[in-house]
Amino acid sequence: MLSYQHAYHAGNLADLHKHALLAWMLDYLCAKPKPLSYLETHAGRGLYDLGGPESEKTGEARAGITRALAQDWLPADHPLRQALDQIRALHGPQAYPGSPLIARYFLRPEDEAHLAELHPAEHDALARVGGFAHLHRQDGFQMANAICPPTPRRGLLLIDPSYEIKADYDAIPRHIAKLARKWNVGTIALWYPILTDGRQAPMVETLRAADPEALLSEVRFPPARPGHGMVGSGMFVINPPYGLSDEAARIEALYDTL
């Protein structure tokens, strides 16, 4: 459960899908002069080096964020592009923000952030860049259940597990149902991989049956290498901000060109 390290995959095509939607949601929510809460169940280290050995080993970022920037997938005024430009101005041209630092770009002094990360090394790295948030070295679902409904009640929860344990696919709909009952005004966003064996499909069907009004965005892409099982990325968003469906459709159309 503690073996996954996202540095090998940071900035890949799945990250691009997830982070483009996340940044759009945060930009929308923070545009209103009301404080909010931002929670993450699986935060990771927050900042990645696309020139590092892990990223170079897989080459996934070159097929993801590097290609997206070269092909103008993210215009200069896109929220993710704005966050990325600031992070690179501070940390260098090969820096890539994980979701915590994307959130940091948008959050204001009156907002509250809670980030959970269980992996010891990842948590230590997160602590070096996550001073804007309350950090929790514990199971992310335990953290979310303890805090929800948060104060302020307006806000966003990102659930982004590694899915190393196959039982996650069965457990996540139950976790989300419980959190949605406790925090019925919150935006709850789940990322999941689309796999060649289709193991994510029953989870998605269960989620859609429980909340047919939620936004579902899925994109497909070629495997990162021969035999690699992930061939797409999905986002399931309860209480999606107004206009998110249009941004999701724009992104999905870009992936259709791959």
TrEMBL record:
Keyword RNA-binding: yes
Catalytic center residues: D160
Binding-site residues for S-adenosyl-L-methionine, renumbered to this chain: H19, H42, S99, E117, D139, G140, D160
EC number: 2.1.1.266
GO molecular function: 23S rRNA (adenine(2030)-N(6))-methyltransferase activity; RNA binding
Site (Interaction with substrate rRNA): Y4
Enzyme class, spelled out: transferase
Pfam families, sorted: RsmJ
Reactions catalysed: adenosine(2030) in 23S rRNA + S-adenosyl-L-methionine = N(6)-methyladenosine(2030) in 23S rRNA + S-adenosyl-L-homocysteine + H(+)
SUPFAM superfamilies attached to this UniProt entry: S-adenosyl-L-methionine-dependent methyltransferases (SSF53335)
GO biological process, any: rRNA base methylation
Keyword Protein transport included in the entry's annotation: no
GO CC terms in record: cytosol
Keyword entries, A-Z: Methyltransferase, RNA-binding, rRNA processing, S-adenosyl-L-methionine, Transferase
Annotated function: Specifically methylates the adenine in position 2030 of 23S rRNA.
PANTHER family recorded: RIBOSOMAL RNA LARGE SUBUNIT METHYLTRANSFERASE J
Family according to the record: Belongs to the RlmJ family.
Assembly with partners or alone: Monomer.
HAMAP family for the chain: 23SrRNA_methyltr_J
Protein name (database record): Ribosomal RNA large subunit methyltransferase J
